[in-house]
Amino acid sequence: MEKLDLLTWIKDSLKQSSDSLIHWQKEAKESDDFVAGHQWEESDITRMKEVQKPAITFNRIAPMVNAILGTEIQHRQKMIFTPRKPTNEEAAGAADLATDAYTWVLDQCGGEYERTQAFRDMIVRGIGWVNIRIDYESDPEGKIILERTDGQEMLYDPDSRKQNLEDARWVCRRRLMPPGELKELWPDKADEVRADVASNEDISAIGPFGMSDRPTKIINKAPDHYSEGVQSVVAGDSLNSTKQAQYLVSEFQWRERKTVYRFVDENQEMVLVDESEFSELKATWKDLGVEAPAVIKQYRWQYKRAYVTGNVILQEDDLPFGFFTYLPMTCYWDDKSKVWYGLVRAMKDPQRGANKYFSAGVHLFNVSPKGTMLAESGAFVNPGKATNDWAKPGAIVHLKPGALAQGMVKVEPAPSFPEAATTMIQFSIESLRDVTGINMEMMGQSEGQEAGTAISKRQTQGLTIMAPIFHAFARYREKEALAVLDFLRMFLTDGRWVRIGGPYNSQYLQLVQDSLSDSYDLSLDDAPTDPNQKAAVWENLQPLLPMLIRQGSFPIALLDYAPLPSSVVSSIKREIESLKQQGEQTPEPVKKDMNPEYIAAEVELKKANAELSRARAQALTTESQMDIATQSQTIQLREEDAEIQRRMGDDNTLDQVANVSKLNEPKGTGIKSDSR
Fold this sequence. Notes:
The protein is α+β, with helices and mostly antiparallel strands. It is 46% helix and 18% strand. It folds into four domains: 10-168 and 329-368 and 415-527, no CATH class; 171-211 and 246-323, no CATH class; 373-412, no CATH class; 592-663. Helix 5 packs across helix 14, helix 10 (344-367) packs antiparallel against helix 12 (419-436) and helix 18 runs antiparallel to helix 19 (628-663).
């Protein structure tokens, strides 16, 4: 695009997106307040104070949000890179390196923690963002950073409809930047920016949203606005404030279709070139008189980026990746408002109802602890003081002489708490679970004395209801893994050393240019990080462990699920590996099962065991009156005879093997053979 056309398109796109996201921005702010416990409107609080009613809040939304976050944290999955050439051993090793390098990047920058915060934004607001970038400030050699980005700073293509904005044509992040920082990043644009500001009388020309985003706010604490202390004023951004002098910089990323040509070269390798390169190749083929190969014309996305403030394009360049560096994860789609929304939207009304019904009940108990007094005029010594005394517990209300005898005062009993209000409170609390599907078992609680199996099934049912959310999260994980892999290929394959393995079995390998050049398929695998999952897997393995140990086929990977400290597990793994290496170096013993005499002895032993089994069956089923002790003694004698025969067969076999070895021994060596 021409610069003027590009600037016009960017400003129009941002204006269209900001208009469509006004409702979402307000709802997202309200959802954040609800999770933080700010669940009353300012107008409601004002009215409650007017009638001296309490505004009570029992925040039930935050534990539910934390329950989902805890599920994601405790069930974090590991991304596995699988080579698309499974028969190539080098490709398999490169895939393992890619898996470990990706995990290393996350460990270095705390990517899993940042991702969890973005996942929280998705649950609360409906959409969360993660930015992937290379940082040279903390590491001069370059460090890949994954960080959560505030969704209030993000704008995106309003025509996007797919999950995780897969079909978005552009995304944008807008931030306020001090003049000094802007001059450091774009020194050749500082004068142009100042001239642009001076030529615009309207301060909104500095950016699509204006320079001041925090106006003055007046909060009324009581309906009488003219009384002293009933209003509080929160000052906004003045024209001379420090924040007002900042520039609103928009980082705008978009994609364009690019024509490419695909053909097979003389080495039978697939080549992909753009239009300019293809034109040069055609000219070369023509000059050399070489027949041009079969060419396929295709289209690919070319990703670009521009930094804009006001009417000035600060920077424009091509992104070297096939994706936006801002990756979103989305929750539920509202087709009417055309925005994404989270779980908190459904929990707001039940939470409001529970707060209001409970506050009304507390107010009822406060205002009528003694019931309602009905009195005739002239019954009290001091009518004004009597009203206050009646509201105080334990106070004495003074009446005129004869007021009680004449029945001038009558007390109506205090009304009981309305049963309907109790029902509504209970209904509101239960509705919080009904509208979200988060049951008590997911929050670590249970109702009644249910069995562990029933609790486990209810937890599984709760996770099933949350499946659409975790599906979007898994889709984001794949996009994140491919993005990190491209960053590794682009910036970190310079021979640097990366750590692979855990804290107790780690080693370092070098990343070179060709180490991550293959294509991979991605899959999420369960990682043994959840203590409950580890205990369940280890419990299910108990019946199989003796057999695996006897057969010598115990997989070392199962030790990761053992309920032991990581240091102990690593020590056991090293010991097993050491024993395996020693076993490989030990020569194999002479196999007796190939000797004919040994085979004959085994046959006789099997016959004796079969006869013994028949004797046992006959002894158990006989209807004779033989004493049980005599039967047991007979069976024992037969077992001893069978054992003697087996031992004699083994001894004869060993003697025969020794004799054969003696006959085969070379004569004249002077070496005596041991028969045992």
